[in-house]
């Protein structure tokens, strides 16, 4: 049976939304982290959740859970600054993920992406490997009028038609960061959380909603409460 481990980064020091990972959210005491861990712990194929953090509140909460699937990684401070790049963190990941061949990188800031979405994505990942892909990432399909700053259109030819129907525009995919699934071999080989032939796994805008700013946090609370009531 194929198995997979999760990398869940949760550093302290969010400047745009202080303590966004663990402050109360939609009536849930430990907020986004509590939601995400509950989702991930429901997935049978996941054999380990590596929670990488330097946040004392998160460390305390994770220890109280006392769940054998959750492994705490006390991340070095040099990898927790506002100037730390994602590339630097990617290179760090293989050094702490030694119990698996496959890694799913996800974030607590995508609360609407739930256990059912992860299960389907993991299943698709292993099927995609057999089809010649080497990794998978969640994306949002954009069919909008996109322009460079210089006024040149990105995804259609204005010399043919100035404002075509959006259905006819060339599709553009946004990496929405809900999840990335890749082999540890590819992490070591390419220093990247995707390979050279990733499968694009589409999520709708609600499922892929990412909390980055204070207004995102407030909007996400409304959406999350609504999804629970449906």
UniProtKB/TrEMBL annotation:
GO terms for molecular function: N-acylneuraminate cytidylyltransferase activity. Pfam families: CTP_transf_3 (PF02348). CDD domains: CMP-NeuAc_Synthase (cd02513). PANTHER family: HAD SUPERFAMILY MEMBERS CMAS AND KDSC, N-ACYLNEURAMINATE CYTIDYLYLTRANSFERASE-RELATED. This is Acylneuraminate cytidylyltransferase. It comes from Dysgonomonas mossii DSM 22836.
């Amino acid at each position: 049976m194929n198995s997979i481990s999760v990398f869940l980064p949760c550093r302290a020091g969010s400047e745009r939304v202080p303590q966004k990972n663990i402050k109360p959210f939609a009536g849930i005491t430990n907020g986004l982290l509590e939601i995400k861990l509950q989702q991930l712990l429901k997935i049978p194929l996941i054999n380990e959740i590596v929670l990488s953090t330097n946040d004392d509140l998160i460390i305390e909460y994770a220890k109280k859970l006392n769940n054998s699937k959750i492994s705490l990684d006390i991340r070095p401070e040099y990898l927790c600054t506002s100037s730390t790049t994602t590339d630097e963190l990617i290179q760090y990941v293989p050094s702490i993920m030694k119990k698996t061949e496959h890694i799913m990188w996800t974030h607590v800031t995508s609360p609407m992406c739930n256990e059912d979405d992860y299960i389907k994505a993991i299943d698709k990942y292993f099927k995609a490997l057999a089809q010649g892909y080497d990794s998978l990432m969640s994306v949002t399909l954009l069919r909008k009028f996109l322009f460079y700053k210089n006024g040149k259109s990105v995804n259609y030819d204005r010399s043919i038609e100035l404002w075509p129907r959006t259905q006819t525009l060339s599709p553009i995919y946004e990496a929405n960061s809900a999840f990335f699934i890749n082999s540890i071999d590819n992490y070591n080989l390419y220093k990247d959380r995707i390979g050279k032939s990733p499968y694009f796994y589409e999520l709708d805008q609600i499922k892929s909603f990412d909390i980055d700013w204070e207004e995102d946090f407030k909007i996400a609370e409304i959406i999350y409460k609504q999804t629970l009531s449906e």
